[in-house]
Amino acid sequence: MRPERKSLPHLDTGSEVHQISVGHKVSTRRVAVAVGVIRFSNPQVKDIIKDHALEKGDVLAVARVAGIMAVKNTSNWIPLAHNNVAVEGCSVDLNLVNPEDEIPTHALQESRQSRGMTQPIGPCGGLRIKVTCESTGKTGVEMEAMCGVVGAALTVVDMCKAVDKEITVGDVKIIGKKGGNSGDWGIFTEG
Questions:
Q1: More confident site: 82 or 91
Q2: Which residues fall within 8 angstroms of residue 171, CB to CB, at 6 or more apart?
Q3: Pairwise CA distance, residues 24 & 39, whole Å
Q4: 172 exposed, middle or buried (CB, 10 Å; 0-12, 13-18, 19+)?
Q5: I need a labelling partner for 137 at 20 to 30 A (CA). Which of 100, 108, 158, 161 fits?
Q6: 158 is catalytic
Q7: Per-residue pLDDT tens for 134-186?
Q8: Of 75, 80, 119, which Cα lies nearest the Cα of 100?
């Protein structure tokens, strides 16, 4: 038996793109968490960041601000995202990871949604990014959390590209959401 096929919400019955109306929805408390990984190809990058040795400045501080700015500008990045989502809280966590370490996942360690985030980061180390967004409204903040991860990650790439030409960004995904019509998902449903 095949699972029920769900329709794409941004397509109308004629398969034309439109923005979904959320006018009928009830405002609820919403939280979304997204993660991503940066892998360095130069073993010196981690120490350069840690020692604030780049001419452009404090990489982690600038990336944190960039992540917050990306969250606030999500509708400028994603054409069908709702405009002016009232993000009431946003945290951008950036953790440098040693080459031999696994990416620390703290409370996410056992989460089935975070599988793959505990694999070794690679021979040159890297950075783990986690963005948590909170809002009370009629639409979720999953896209805001993902834009925050990507904004922070691209800022790290921009600031470090002079010392690491092959730095990569990957494993960007939502690992949990809370609130809304579809309920809690991911890390918010696991014991």
A1: 91
A2: 35, 36, 37, 116, 117
A3: 43
A4: middle
A5: 108
A6: yes
A7: 999 877 899 999 999 999 999 999 999 999 999 999 999 999 999 887 888 88
A8: 119
CA distance 19 to 58: 39
pLDDT digits (tens, 9 = 90+) for 84-102: 788 899 999 999 998 876 5
In the chain, the amino acid numbered 78 is I
Catalytic residue of the set 12, 158, 164, 171: 158
- Residues 29 and 106: their CA atoms lie apart, in Å, by 24
- Would you state the structure tokens that stand for residue 72, as one six-digit string? 């606030």
The number of CA neighbours under 13 Å toward the Cβ of 144 is: 27
pLDDT in tens, 109-135: 444 444 445 566 888 999 999 999 999
